[in-house]
Amino acid sequence: MKLLFVEDEPVLIEEMETYFKSLDFICEKALTFRQAEEKITSYKYDVVILDITLPDGNGIDLIPVIREGNPDAGVLILSAKDSVHDKVRGLNLGADDYLTKPFFVEELNARINALFRRKAFKGADEVSFDDFRIDLSAKLLFHKDVTISLTRKEYEMLLYFVVNKGRVLSKASITEHLWGDHFDQLDNFDALYVHIKNLRKKLVSASGTDYLKAMYGMGYKLNF
Amino acid sequence: MKLLTRTSLSQLWLSLFILLLTGGMLMAFLQYEVSTEIKEQLELQATMVADEIRADRPVNFPLVSIDTTKAVLDRPEIFRDTQIYDPLQDKAEGYYYLDETRPINGKKYRIKVMAAHIGIDGYLKAVVYIFITMAILFIGLGALMNYFISKKIWQPFLNNLQKLKFYSVSSQENLVLDGSDITEFKEMNLVLQDLASGARREYSALKEFTENASHEIQTPLSIIQSRLESVSQFELQPEVARFVVDAKQATHRLSKVNKGLLLLAKLENNAFPEKQMIDLKEVIGLKFAEIEDLFANKGLKTELGMQSRTINANPFLVETMISNMLSNMLAHSPANSTVKIVLDEAKLSFHNEGAPLSFPSSNLFARFSKAADDYKGNGLGLSIVRQICTVNGWVVAYEYRDMEHIFTIRFANQHPISADTA
């Protein structure tokens, strides 16, 4: 999968590049509006990650340029402005998703994966690890063709772990993914712990292996 | 005391003073003129009597007495008041008399002539009546005139006062005041309009500053957060790990506060004009479904008593409001208690059990006010809810009844209060 990051903040570009390269994505970057315009008109990308505030222009104005050259590309807006106006305008112009800074790179990854799957079914319809298989359209988990019933939150959490395999996911990152912006209070770490415990139990009883590893209060990691 | 009452009262006292003074002067003047006239007449009469005596004709005028016995020359003439009994009217009447001694034909005659007051009492009565009428007219017509002046001159002033009462510097419109042709009012309007536009400029600069500051903070926060997440990927010594976790939590909290402040600034900037019809019951149902497991995990029993209710509002704001209220309920309900959401045509209310507040309930909606318990929220949730209610013309209220905390949002069918309604 080929990604283009349009972002004027070098540290954030580096963070995104490092992570997505480790997941075997092909990553390119543009630090200015002009650079981005050049790349978009010359090459094809699967997903463009677009910062709105660029030193020499508004990222939203790049959306029509992207659409012109490559109608199938996914466009994900990154913004420091949690602005409904920008969001609505971006989505109307053909952006596919919107993420507000500060964001978790795992969340960005989950969004890019979902976006990639949605776009013309280019992505795999299922994800597997070891003997487990997740049917993404039916939202079901199988272990060697045996269905394992998961609650909705357990399913979402497992998928989040699988997409971000091998990465330590902080509690805040997982709670924000599961319950959104408003409910990621520390109080809810209890609920998170319950979900983790149940998911782990289900995975262990099916396969005999403990995939979910707790990391010194840092968070959790799925290993396989 | 109203200005009008004060000036009317002053005017009343002044009128009374002037009327009494001029009335008194008029009476004194009248009396003086009349008595001078009578004296002249009496002198004439006395001269005529003396002529008669000189001509040696018998003098037989009424109210004239001539005496030769007590006459003393060199005595000054006497002009005086006296009372004479009037048998016709059966009362004493006021008279003037002139008493003088004249030498006539070598003899001394003391001549005393008298004349009635010629109705001076009647004059005085007339003067009093006229002046009382004048006083009544002054007061009555003055009040009437004041009424019309107040209608015409004061009305724009009162209108403007009302406009000022309802004017808010956060309003989008300029302060528009009714014109007046009175110089002082014109000047005051100019000053007020200057003041209002200055305050509005300052206020919007402040809002802009808040918004810009929040935006500028977001990017460094993103860098800190992603760097900390990257650090977390390494095998860390437990002590370092603890430091990183603390730093991550603080960053996260900072980011929440910043987002909350940004939202408040935007709400005050009226940045959410897009409205649409929203089925509130459906939105609450969806929002609740997202976090049902959080309520279940805390052992909370949820009772939903909701009728269908459609509102015209901004969907993002409605979702934010519902999320904040649910979050508030979740955070402040004791484990294994019951929470209730009730929605009907007029209002939406959130009930949760719990001990009474340990602080005045008026602090609930203030920014950064926190409960005494170990609640980890940022203290902006409820002030955001109130602000959302305000922009929609709704009213949110808190009460504690039957061991329950109850937040009620009352919908109003009218538009939000603006300067125009004044």
Largest sheet of chain A: 5 strands, parallel
Strand content of chain B: 15-25%
- Supply the number of helical segments of chain B: 7
Write the element-wise H/E pattern of chain A from the N-terminal end onward: EHEHEEEHEHEHEEEEHEHHEE
Q: SS-based structural class of chain B? A: alpha+beta
Number of strands of chain A: 14
Helical content class of chain B: 40-55%
Structural features, described:
The complex is a heterodimer of chains A (224) and B (422). Chain A is of the alpha/beta class and 224 residues long. Chain A is built from 8 helices and 14 strands. In chain A, helix 2 packs parallel to helix 3 (62-69) and helix 6 (152-163) crosses helix 8 (189-207). Chain B is α+β, with helices and mostly antiparallel strands. In chain B, 54% of the residues lie in helices and 18% in strands. A 5-stranded mixed β-sheet of chain B has the order 6-8-9-11-10. A 4-stranded antiparallel β-sheet of chain B has the order 1-4-3-2, with helices on one face. In chain B, strands 5-7 form a two-stranded antiparallel sheet. Chains A and B meet through helix 1, helix 4, helix 7 and helix 8 of A and helix 3, helix 4, helix 5 and helix 6 of B.
Layout: helices, strands, pairs:
The complex is a heterodimer of chains A (224) and B (422).
Chain A: E1 2-6, H1 10-22, E2 26-30, H2 33-42, E3 47-51, E4 53-54, E5 57-58, H3 62-69, E6 74-79, H4 84-93, E7 97-100, H5 105-118, E8 126-129, E9 132-135, E10 140-143, E11 146-148, H6 152-163, E12 169-170, H7 171-179, H8 189-207, E13 212-215, E14 219-222
Parallel strand pairs in A: 1-2, 1-3, 3-6, 6-7
Antiparallel strand pairs in A: 4-5, 8-9, 9-10, 10-11, 12-14, 13-14
Helix pairs in contact in A: 2-3, 6-8
Chain B: H1 3-54, E1 64-67, E2 78-86, E3 91-104, E4 107-116, H2 120-166, H3 183-232, H4 238-268, E5 276-279, H5 280-297, E6 301-306, E7 310-313, H6 315-332, E8 338-343, E9 347-353, H7 381-392, E10 395-401, E11 404-410
Parallel strand pairs in B: 6-8
Antiparallel strand pairs in B: 1-4, 2-3, 3-4, 5-7, 8-9, 9-11, 10-11
Helix pairs in contact in B: 1-2, 3-4, 4-7, 5-6, 6-7
